[in-house]
Every structure is written in C-alpha cells, then in structure tokens.
Design a protein that fits this description.
alpha/beta; Rossmann fold; 9-stranded mixed sheet; 9 strands; globular; AB_hydrolase_fold; FrsA_esterase; Dienelactone hydrolase domain-containing protein
C-alpha cells in the first residue's frame, strides 16, 4: 500500500442510480452510475439473478487489449450502446472468451455480477480505439502528480468491491473476483488488498519478473505495462509473492502452454512459490493451479471449471 501512493479518498456516499435495465433469461441487466471514490463517478453494469437473495457475487475485471472503446462491455453483453460498440464487444467475446460473455454466464448461474471500466477504457476513456501511445502519456502524467496508473486501477477495483458489498441483493460474505489477462492481474491484486474478496480466479496472468523481462516480451516495452506497474514494489515482492498475500483464500490460476505472453517456465516457478505459501498455512486444497494446452484465451471449458470453483467456495 505504501508503494501505491496518493490513492483516491473513499466516496462519502455512493449515490447509485439505475439509468437503464434489460430483462435477460434468469436475471436482469442494469446500467448504473455510482461514486467510486471522491475522484470518480463511474458507469457500470450490474447483473442480478431472479429469485430471492442475497446472492453470491463476482466482480468481473476486464482485460487490456484494444479497442479501448470497450472495457466492462468485454465481460457483460452491453445494451443501449452504438452499433460500433456492440460490434466491438461481440468481436472481443469471440476473440478472447470463446464467444461467451463471462459475466452473463455467471449471472445465469445465480451470481450478482458487477463490472466497471478501468481508467482509460470504455466510458472512462476518450474512445482511443487502438491508439496505444496514449497510455504512456496518461501514465507519465499520473506519475508526475504523485500517483500511478496501476495503483489507481487497483484501488478503483477495491472500491468497487466495497460498493458491491453494500447492495441488498449481495451476500457480502460471498464475494469473489474473476479476470482474464490484465483482468487476471487485477483479480489477484484485488484479492491481496481487500479482505472483502473471499475467492479469486486469475486466467492467463501469472509469472515471474525474471521470465517476463526479456527483449521480446511486452512487459519491458512501456505503454501497456504501466497499467500493471506499482512503482517500487519489486524491491520487496515479485508477482507470486503479491498474489500470495491473499493466502489462505481459495484462489485459482490458469495459464496456457501456447501463451506467448507468459513463458511456461515462469508460470511453473510462480506456481511453485505460491504453492509453498498455501502449503505453509495448511491451505493446499484452496489453491488451484493448472496449465492448459491453450493460447492466451479463456475457453468455455476453462469458464466451466472456474464456475465450478466459485460454486464450491461461494455457494456453501
């Protein structure tokens, strides 16, 4: 937390309003606005199952890739949007999520689902499309103001859990988080910084700094990497060490043998580090690590196993 520096003050009041809704099979989709912090009032999608609550809930954290015009729309099928945004969202669901909106999939299985835009994406961006250069400018300006882009994203995610826990439809003792790619990084970071998250699943983002800092990996090229950097933290902890702060919570990590972004040796080394921590706390059964014969992709079989994981730990 010391490395994060100058984080936003918590919201004095959420002042949530519902600006739109749509009935779907077994649940309702709502477009909402609320005060995420004293610095930001944000739009979000909230999915609420039919029936009597309170329900378990999942904070769905979107990935990084452009177009930046979509963020939360990658996780939850949007409504009331332009044809261009709808097309971008559908294309992305096909490209990364096997044609399935993960948030809708979980809502249909009895979970309240919340998804916000990270700063720079969707309705919290400038519709940059595929302009990656703007990331560097944003990160530079934030660093000069005494904070960092990565820290703001993490704290926004933590504040979204605080908000979610206040909703009458939600059982605040059964909140989990799930993300793919950058969303996976956000998920294990979120579980590390707040006790409100009781279980987490991270798909296709875990490794070691030694394995990622190579001439061909994206992590040392600036730009996108700034969204997942907390300045100074590497003096103390590597990625698997930060993720292990969440121990002994139930936590799932999936990676792929064909994922060019995350070398398998680094994945195995990170898994070994985390396994030692969970073992030390007598919580070995609560850590799931698996390397699939897959590229950087969250296929439907992986989504089903992730749902089964949350059902085990959040639907007891």
């Amino acid at each position: 937390m010391e490395c994060m520096e100058n984080i936003p003050p918590t919201a004095k009041a959420y002042n949530m309003v519902v600006v739109g809704s749509e009935k779907r099979k077994g649940y309702e989709a709502r477009k909402i606005l609320f005060n995420l912090s004293e610095w930001s009032r944000v739009p979000a999608y909230l999915l609420v199952p039919e029936g009597k609550g309170p329900f378990p809930a999942i904070v769905m954290l979107h990935d990084h890739g452009a177009p930046f015009s979509i963020g939360k729309e990658k996780m939850i099928r949007p409504f009331g949007v332009s044809a261009e945004v709808m097309a971008d969202a559908d294309d992305w669901a096909q490209k990364c999520y096997d044609g399935q909106y993960t948030g809708d999939y979980f809502a249909a299985h009895g979970y309240v689902v919340l998804s916000i835009d990270a700063l720079y994406w969707g309705e919290r961006g400038r519709k940059e499309g595929v302009n990656y250069e703007g990331q560097q400018a944003l990160a530079s300006n934030l660093l000069q103001m005494g904070t960092s882009w990565g820290a703001l994203i993490t704290m926004d995610d933590a504040y979204s859990v605080d908000f979610l826990s206040t909703l009458p439809e939600v059982d605040s003792e059964r909140i989990g988080t799930l993300g793919f790619s950058m969303g996976a990084y956000r998920a294990w970071m979120l579980s590390a910084v707040t006790d409100r998250v009781k279980a987490a699943a991270a798909i296709c983002w875990m490794n070691t700094t030694d394995s990622l800092m190579t001439l061909t990996n994206n992590q040392n090229k600036g730009g996108s990497a700034y969204s997942m950097i907390i300045p100074g933290i590497r003096r103390y902890l590597d990625y698997p060490h930060v993720a292990s702060i969440a121990c002994p919570k139930p936590t799932l990590f999936f990676n792929g043998t064909k994922d060019k972004l995350f070398p398998v040796q680094g994945v195995e080394d990170a898994y070994k580090t985390m396994r030692a921590v969970w073992n030390s706390q007598g919580a070995d059964e609560k850590l799931v690590t698996k390397i699939w014969d897959e590229k950087h992709f969250f296929n439907r079989a992986m989504q089903q196993e992730t749902l089964d994981f949350f059902d085990r730990w959040l639907k007891k």
